[in-house]
């Protein structure tokens, strides 16, 4: 497959900049791979397609407030710092991106907060834009993280062209988020409300969790036409024995296994074993999935509507079939579905 095959015309006004008022009342397009039929529903109606013993796999990663604004020492120049991950708890070392990168050198100090009480020193240049910062803070690690996160903003995707507001801290987060580490929300999971999950439980639908700490690589532009030459950024992930037992039992009982989101699909395929089963996994994945690809674990997929040329769109077409999914996207544009993390959802069965 070529990069140019994932182009489609997306009107700017269809990119959702605000979440749906109620999580489970966004729209849901249902795409049937066998018949090619496309149906239009409300997200909470997803429950009608599953029954007792079926399994939903969700990503329980938690997004942290990763975007900070500070000032450079002496010049006072405004610097944007994007926290990627903590490298060393004891020394308060963080892997970060900085903008504008050209203004920052090793040894520079950056000041954050109205009172400039949070100070960081640049100690390493890891990539063209990346840096390692050491935060200078005397309190405990818990106090430091608390202070750091109070300064941070919700890392909304770059296509949402507005400043974050306090409500984003809750809405750009799944209700089941539990393990901190992501800077990109697993958007398909944002549609699940407590009421919907309770109704699923009553119907006998099981929910299991894996963890994939989604990173900024999800938004990085692909700069090669030949997709086999693209390399995904690595993301930390974990598949527990509890999830493996749940999924493997469902597979043995011939039940449905629904992957909620492309991050979950990547995680499953990283931990796949023989005969459509899963195995435990703790580590990193840089798996890049695009058509054609043979999936053996997941029988259905929930995903939001993604941007042109994105790796997430490529994964969805690999699962649903390139022609059918690209046709469904044409229908979505015509029917004015909302695109992006705060947008509507698609269920492929």
Automatic annotation (TrEMBL):
Catalytic activity: 7-aminomethyl-7-carbaguanosine(34) in tRNA + S-adenosyl-L-methionine = epoxyqueuosine(34) in tRNA + adenine + L-methionine + 2 H(+)
Pathway: tRNA modification; tRNA-queuosine biosynthesis
Primary localization: cytoplasm
GO cellular component: cytoplasm
Subcellular location: Cytoplasm
Keywords: Cytoplasm, Glycosyltransferase, Isomerase, Queuosine biosynthesis, S-adenosyl-L-methionine, Transferase
Gene Ontology terms: biological process: tRNA queuosine(34) biosynthetic process
Molecular function terms, GO-annotated: S-adenosylmethionine:tRNA ribosyltransferase-isomerase activity
Superkingdom as given in the UniProt entry: Bacteria
SUBUNIT field: Monomer.
Matching HAMAP family: QueA
This protein's name: S-adenosylmethionine:tRNA ribosyltransferase-isomerase
Source species: Muribaculum gordoncarteri
Origin organism lineage: Bacteria, Pseudomonadati, Bacteroidota, Bacteroidia, Bacteroidales
